[in-house]
Design a protein that fits this description.
The chain is an alpha/beta fold. The protein has three domains: 2-41; 69-137, Peptidase S8 propeptide/proteinase inhibitor I9 (Alpha-Beta Plaits), CATH 3.30.70.80; 179-301, Rossmann fold (3-Layer(aba) Sandwich), CATH 3.40.50.200. Helix content is 29%, strand content 15%. The chain is built from seven helices and seven strands, in the order ααβαββαβαββαβα. Strands 2-3-1-4 form a four-stranded antiparallel sheet, with helices on one face. Strands 5-7-6 form a three-stranded parallel sheet, covered by helices on one side. The longest helix is centred in the first third of the chain and has 27 residues, at 15-41. The termini are far apart.
Length: 301
C-alpha cells in the first residue's frame, strides 16, 4: 500500500507527467469552449436569450396610411462590417430567405418563413449584426391616388374596375412612389394646342424665359427672335403665331394624361410635376410635312 502511494506521488511529480496533465487540461478547456460556441450557434433564434423589445413595429411616414406592406417580406440592412457568413447565419436563425439585393440602399429584400412580418422585423432588429429592418411597405404618396376620378384611370392603376384583367396597367401608382416628375423637365406636346385655363393644367404650363418678365408676355414683339411673337407657353405652327390655344381639345386631353395636377379636382397625370410646352400643328386638318419639321426644330431649341 505504501509502495503504491509512493509510486503515485513519484509519477505525479515527474516533469513529463506534469506537462501531459497540463496539455490535457488545456485541450479539455478548448473542447468545452468549442462545444459551447457550437451549441449557441444552433440555438433557434426564438429560444435565444435576447433582450426584450416591445416597441411598436417600425413605421415610415411616407408609407400608406394604415401601414400596408407586402405579406411575407422584409427589408434588412446589415452593418457594413458583417460578412456573408454572418449574414447567412442571421437569416437562418431569424427565418429569412434572401430574395433580392437592394443596391441603392445597400440592403436586401428577404422572404419571411414560419413567422409574421412583425415578429421577423423585431427579431432582426435585436441582432447586433443588423443596422435596421422594416416591412416592405407600400408607398402611395399622399394625394396622387386621392383624386376624385382616380378610380377611372385603369391605364394608371387597373384593379379590374371595368372588367379588365387586374394589374394590366403602366404601374403608375407604384412609380409615383419613386417620382412624380421633375418640375424642371419640359414635355413638348405636338398636337392641337393646349388650353392652359383648364384647372388640371394651369400650373403645368412651360414659360418661355425669352418672352416673359418685364411685360414681354404681351408687348407684341418677338423678344427671343425665333419668329413667333409673344410665344410664352409654346407656338402655333398651324396659324403661324405665338398662341397655341387648343380649339380641338385633343392636345389638352393628351397634356392631362401626361401632367394633370394633384389638386383634388378630377384626374391625375402620369407625371403631375412636369411642365408642358404646347406646340400646335392640328386645327382641324392634317399638318404638312414642312410644318412637322418646323415643330421639331422649335422643340429642340
Amino acid at each position: 500500500m505504501r509502495k503504491s502511494i509512493a509510486l503515485r506521488r513519484k509519477i505525479a511529480t515527474h516533469p513529463r507527467m506534469i506537462a501531459v496533465v497540463a496539455a490535457g487540461t488545456l485541450v479539455a478547456a478548448i473542447l468545452i469552449m468549442l462545444m459551447t460556441a457550437s451549441a449557441r450557434a444552433v440555438i433557434p433564434e426564438g429560444n435565444a436569450p435576447l433582450v426584450r423589445n416591445d416597441a411598436p413595429l417600425v413605421t415610415d411616414p411616407g408609407a400608406t396610411p394604415g401601414g400596408e406592406f407586402a405579406p411575407g417580406e422584409v427589408i434588412v440592412k446589415f452593418k457594413e462590417t458583417v460578412g456573408p457568413g454572418e449574414r447567412a447565419n442571421v437569416r437562418s436563425q431569424v427565418g429569412l430567405e434572401k430574395v433580392q439585393e437592394l443596391g441603392l440602399i445597400k440592403a436586401e429584400l428577404a422572404k419571411v418563413e414560419g413567422r409574421s412580418v412583425e415578429d421577423a422585423v423585431r427579431a432582426s432588429e435585436r441582432r447586433p449584426e443588423v443596422e435596421y429592418a422594416q416591412p416592405n411597405f407600400t408607398y402611395n404618396p399622399a394625394g396622387y391616388a386621392d383624386e376624385p376620378r382616380f378610380g377611372e384611370l385603369w391605364g394608371l392603376n387597373n384593379t379590374g374596375q371595368n372588367g379588365e384583367t387586374p394589374n394590366v396597367d403602366i404601374n403608375a401608382l407604384e412609380a409615383s412612389g419613386v417620382t412624380q416628375g421633375d418640375p424642371n423637365l419640359v414635355v413638348a406636346v405636338i398636337d392641337s394646342g393646349v388650353d392652359f385655363s383648364h384647372p388640371e393644367l394651369t400650373g403645368r404650363r412651360w414659360v418661355n424665359p425669352g418672352e416673359s418678365g418685364g411685360g414681354k408676355e404681351t408687348n407684341g414683339i418677338d423678344d427671343d427672335g425665333n419668329g413667333f411673337v409673344d410665344d410664352v407657353n409654346g407656338a402655333d405652327f398651324f396659324n403661324n403665331d405665338g398662341n397655341p390655344f387648343d380649339d380641338n381639345s385633343h392636345g389638352t386631353h393628351v397634356s392631362g394624361t401626361i401632367a394633370a395636377s394633384v389638386n383634388d379636382q378630377g384626374v391625375v397625370g402620369v407625371a403631375p410635376n412636369v411642365k408642358i410646352m404646347a406646340l400646335k400643328i392640328l386645327s382641324p386638318g392634317s399638318p404638312l410635312c414642312s410644318e412637322l419639321l418646323r415643330t421639331q426644330t422649335r422643340r429642340r431649341s
